[in-house]
Amino acid sequence: MDSPMELNIHHHGTPHIIHVPSSATLQDLTSEITNVLNIPVDNQKLLIAPKPGMQKAPFAPTRLNEILQTSSPKFKITLLGTPAKAIADLHQQSESEKQRQEARASALAAARRNKQTPTSRRSGGVHTISSSSNNYTFHRLLPLSYLPNPDRSLDFLKRLRDDPGIRAAMAKHKFSVPLLTEMNPAEHTTSESRTLGLNRNKGEVIELRLRTDAYDGYRDYRTIRKTLCHELAHCVFGPHDRDFWDLTSQIEKEVERADWKSGGNQLSSQEFYNPGDWDSVQDGEEFVDECGWTGGEFVLGGLQGDSASSQPGSGGALTRREIMARAAEERMKRETQTRKQDDAT
C-alpha cells in the first residue's frame, strides 16, 4: 500500500492540507492543487524552503520524498497563483477599465491638440511632455496590497520619488516614468540568484525589490537607490554595454552630489534592514536585473485595492496603455495648475 503524505500548502497566508501518495511527484502535487484550489498548473509557482527554492511550470516529474526536507524546522511550501475564476473576473474588469481609459485618453489627446501644447519624446523611449521639471518624476506609485504593510511600502516609494538626488538626476536627463512599483521577492528569487529591479519598455514601469526575502523588513535604502539609478539608465540603454555602465555611473554620482539631506551619509538607522545589501551585489550573490525588459503588455494582475500617490484607492489591472493614459492625465493637471498660478501672479 502507498501510504498518503499530508502537506500544508500556504496560499495567501492560509494553510491548505493536500494529500498525495508517498510516491507522488512534483507534477502529482501540482495536479492535486488544481483539483483542491482550482488554480491551473500553468499559474502555479511553489516556493519550497529550505530547498530547492522556487519551482515553476513545467514542473519536473521529481519524487517529492527526494526534494522535500519535511524534517527541517524551516520546511514550508508557499503557493503563488490565482484561481481560474479570479483570473476570468480580472480579465473582464480589465477589459471594462481598458475601454474607459481609451475613451479618456482620446479626450485628453483632443484637448492637447486644441490647446496646441508642444510635446516632445526623448529618444530611447522615455516619455516627456514639456520642459517643466515637475514632469520629470514618477507619476504613480504602487505598493503590492496583498503583501504586509502596503502603507509602509508606499512611504518607501514616496521617499525614493522625493529623494533630492533622484529628483535632480531625473530632471537633468528628462526622465519621466509613469509607474514606480515594488517587486514581490518570491516571484524573483531562485536558489541561484535574486533580482533587485526591472525596467520595462525603457521607462514605462520600474519595479524595485523593497522587502527582505522573509517579508519581515525592508532592504537597505542606499542599495535600493543604487538599483533605481541602474534602472533609470535602462531608460536609454537596454544591454549592459559600456554606454550603459557609463550612464549608470554618471547618474549615481549626480544623485550623491545632489543628496543635500544626507550628504552621502546614512539617514537613520531605523530605516535600514540590512546595511550590507550592496556588498552582496558586488560579490555576485545578487543581480540588479537582466538588462532592460522590452515588449508585451505589463499587467498588475489581481492587485485590486492597491494605493497610488496620484489616484489613491484606484485598483484593477493596468496595461501599458492605461498606465500612459493616467500619466498623461496627471501631467495635464499639473500644467493647468501651473498656468493658474502664473495667471494669479
UniProtKB/TrEMBL annotation:
<feature type="domain" description="WLM">
    <location>
        <begin position="129"/>
        <end position="333"/>
    </location>
</feature>
<feature type="region of interest" description="Disordered">
    <location>
        <begin position="91"/>
        <end position="131"/>
    </location>
</feature>
<dbReference type="InterPro" id="IPR029071">
    <property type="entry name" value="Ubiquitin-like_domsf"/>
</dbReference>
<feature type="compositionally biased region" description="Basic and acidic residues">
    <location>
        <begin position="92"/>
        <end position="103"/>
    </location>
</feature>
<dbReference type="InterPro" id="IPR013536">
    <property type="entry name" value="WLM_dom"/>
</dbReference>
<dbReference type="Pfam" id="PF08325">
    <property type="entry name" value="WLM"/>
</dbReference>
<dbReference type="GO" id="GO:0070628">
    <property type="term" value="F:proteasome binding"/>
</dbReference>
<feature type="compositionally biased region" description="Polar residues">
    <location>
        <begin position="116"/>
        <end position="131"/>
    </location>
</feature>
<protein>
    <recommendedName>
        <fullName>WLM domain-containing protein</fullName>
    </recommendedName>
</protein>
<feature type="region of interest" description="Disordered">
    <location>
        <begin position="326"/>
        <end position="345"/>
    </location>
</feature>
